[in-house]
Write a structure and sequence with these properties.
Radius of gyration: 41 Å
Number of domains: 3
Shape: rod-shaped
Structural class: alpha+beta
Length: 320
């Protein structure tokens, strides 16, 4: 059995070399490169052979040069490149493969595909950048991704998305076919305000002052908060007076000793007075701060942009 398989492989290699050699006589700019590539391949120097086949393919791309690249890549155990090049050789119509070469390529391609993983990708948004192991991804014509043995990190990046990057880890064992979906949520564009400048032609400079008031639909809101602050302050003052009165009453009761019959009631009233005073005081302070902030926000004069336009220059200053 081993002898039969070995004989088959030897026969295949000999046939492949014989089929490649006739290219040397072809009248193309890549004649010498192909001849040198075949020589290097015969000598088992597959790195050199692949480099020469690639140069020949750049000068005169054909199905035969892709086949040579795929064969050398397979010998180098670069199964991703072998799969890619051998698939291309079967599809290429320039100097297409003979029937015998096609059968040989199909056999070698089937072997190479058992050593890679095929991944169908769904990336949203479509404009997201795709990386594999921190390098730009090389996707196939159908958008799929071929990965060799081992652990890989697939990342999608989108500057206007949340999150800006999403990572997926993949362990390739060979022969698997999977679908991977990477979805990033695009953020809504932020509203922006623009200042239109129309510089006058000719010598000299011109200055413009543009006021940018905020919306005035809620202009009465600061007064509501201010009124709440006043009511809270009045309530806190009344609570403080009640607190003081209940405190004095409690002290008097405790001095009376056993004659004091309502100590617990007075103590409860004092505690309620303390709570009312503290609560209304905090509410008054908070309302006052909110009112001050809203008044500042509605100050039209405090949001002005002044721009000075000169020859080929624009200088702007913002007043807060």
């Amino acid at each position: 059995m081993v002898f039969a398989v070995g004989a088959l492989l030897v026969g295949w290699v000999q046939a492949a070399r014989a089929a490649e050699r006739p290219e040397v006589n072809a009248d193309t700019p890549a004649v010498q490169l192909i001849a040198d590539a075949v020589t290097e391949y015969d000598a088992g120097r597959y790195d050199e052979a692949r480099a020469l086949f690639r140069l020949a393919h750049q000068k005169a791309p054909t199905a035969r040069t892709l086949r040579g690249i795929g064969m050398a890549s397979f010998e180098l155990r670069d199964y991703v490149e072998a799969t890619r090049s051998l698939t291309g050789a079967l599809r290429e119509e320039r100097r297409p493969l003979t029937d015998e070469q096609r059968r040989q390529v199909e056999v070698l391609l089937a072997r190479a595909e058992t050593f890679v993983g095929h991944f169908s990708l769904q990336v949203r948004p479509a404009s997201a950048e795709l990386l594999v192991d921190r390098q730009p991804a090389a996707r196939e014509p159908d958008g799929s991704l071929l990965l060799g043995f081992g652990h890989h990190l697939i990342a999608a990046r989108c500057a206007g998305c949340v999150p800006a990057e999403k990572l997926i880890e993949v362990d390739v064992t060979g022969g698997e076919r999977r679908e991977i979906a990477i979805v990033l949520a695009e953020t809504a564009p932020a509203a922006t305000s623009a200042v239109n400048l129309s510089p006058q032609t000719g010598a000299g400079t011109s200055a413009s002052l543009v006021d940018q008031p905020t919306a005035t639909s809620g202009a009465a809101t600061p007064w509501w908060w201010a009124g709440g602050a006043v009511v809270g302050a009045v309530g806190a003052t009344a609570g403080a007076l009640w607190w003081a009165d209940r405190g004095r009453e409690l002290d008097t009761c405790r001095m009376a000793g056993s004659r004091c019959q309502n100590e617990s009631t007075v103590a409860d009233e004092r505690d309620v007075a303390i709570g009312v005073t503290v609560g209304l005081g905090a509410a008054a302070i908070t309302s006052g701060i909110v009112a001050a902030l809203l008044w500042h926000r509605h100050d039209v004069v405090s949001h002005s942009v002044a721009c000075l336009v000169g020859k080929e220059t624009v200088s702007c200053a913002i007043r807060f």
